[in-house]
Amino acid sequence: MDSESADRFVPKDFPIYTWNSKQDGKDQYARFASEFISSIKHLRYLLEPGAVERRLGEHPGPQPAQAALRKEWKEEMRDYKRKVDKIDEHFSTALGTLENSFHFGTAPRHIIAKAINNPPPGLPVNQWNYQRKFEAAWEALRAEYQPSTPVDLSQLREQIFALDDQGPGGFDTFRSEFHRLHAEILATRVPDAILPRELNGIVREGIKNQTVWGLVGYRLYEADPNAPWERTFEAVANLLTSFRSKGMD
């Protein structure tokens, strides 16, 4: 695949969401954002702070008055404009992928359409480029669905405190859901939305499997009653990996 083809590559297997209610969107927003960024692969720089500016480089500035400098300036300006066009093409691809992340006719698709069809008042038409359209659509989805209210936070806290290793998928699901809910709680941007000691307690109390508790939990918490949750997850994961390597369930 040449570089031009690589730039035009759009994944065909990216997740498609169906949010039947605003609460569905709030519940899944963090996972959606993470999976979307993963799905656009080499275009993920579009959502990284400062990455677009770094790739674009410094504007050559106005045309110099000295004739001897104009040739070099023209080359720099042509190169700069090529970069602008390429980056806007990348934003066009990302916008198409964002639209196709939701089924046609759903509320998120309407939100995206409204965002890209309503440029800011007074903005010249030629400046309503794909970068601005994508950023407007991304922000509109974030504003609508990213958990941010006290009610959102209360629901997320209730869910994370209810986790343990006894449901379908056992420890793996427990750890995965913990990380998902933790990320969503942090995304609310509420100060002290959940404290480290609370997270430590959730993981400690969530280990219900007696074998795991006897081999890992008991020793770990006997040495440190408030052991960090990261250390607990690592210790349990290592134990289960050793079991699996020996053919044990």
Radius of gyration: 24 Å
The overall pLDDT, averaged over residues, is: 87
Low-confidence region ranges: 1-10
Beginning-to-end CA distance, first to last residue: 43 Å
Main pleated-sheet profile: none
Approximate helicity band:
55-70%
Shape: elongated
Helix count from the secondary structure assignment:
11
Secondary-structure element series:
HHHHHHHHHHH
DSSP strand tally: 0
Strand-pairing-aware structural class: mainly alpha
Beta fraction: under 5%
Report on the structure:
The protein is mainly alpha-helical. The chain is 65% helix and 0% strand. The protein is built from 11 helices and no strands. It has helices spanning 3-8, 22-39, 51-56, 67-99, 107-116, 130-145, 150-161, 170-187, 196-206, 210-223, 229-245. Helix 4 runs parallel beside helix 6 (130-145) and helix 9 (196-206) runs parallel beside helix 11. The radius of gyration is 24 Å and the shape is elongated. Residues 1-10 have low confidence and may be disordered.
Question: Layout of SSEs?
Answer:
Layout (H helix, E strand, L loop, with lengths): L2 H6 L13 H18 L11 H6 L10 H33 L7 H10 L13 H16 L4 H12 L8 H18 L8 H11 L3 H14 L5 H17 L4
Helix pairs in contact: 2-8, 4-6, 5-6, 7-8, 9-11, 10-11
